[in-house]
Automatic annotation (TrEMBL):
This is Thioredoxin domain-containing protein. InterPro entries: Thioredoxin-like_sf, Thioredoxin_domain. CDD domains: TRX_family. It comes from Cryoendolithus antarcticus. Residues 7-93 form the Thioredoxin domain. It comes from the Eukaryota. Pfam families: Thioredoxin.
């Protein structure tokens, strides 16, 4: 088991969004979660609850999140989308890391 909790239903996602004391990060991927993504989930565990979503298994979830490519990351704060990075662009990932390290 990795650092991410798997989302397999809308109910799982709704429950995750109830989190108010941490960011909620959804890592959308196809196939396998990268080791780097697992490393980041562990690194930010004090400020972020990390979830994974295999969009090849749940294409309707990709549509719901507005994800057009994998891997992508969507971050929620108090139930609302706070950031999205599609394609895991390095400069955007740096900005995201700075945001997550500060906590909610």
């Amino acid at each position: 088991m990795g650092a991410h909790t798997e989302l397999t239903s809308k109910a799982d996602f709704d429950k995750a969004l109830e989190t108010t004391d941490k960011y909620v990060l959804v890592y959308a991927y196809e196939g396998e979660v990268s080791p780097q993504a697992e490393s980041y989930a562990t690194k930010f565990a004090s400020t972020v609850d990390s979830y994974k979503l295999d969009i090849s298994k749940y294409p309707e979830a990709a549509k719901f999140h507005g994800i057009t490519q994998a891997p992508s990351i969507v971050v929620y704060k108090s139930g609302k989308e706070a950031a999205k990075v599609e394609g895991v662009v390095p400069e955007k990932m740096k900005e995201l890391g700075e945001m997550l390290s500060k906590g909610v």
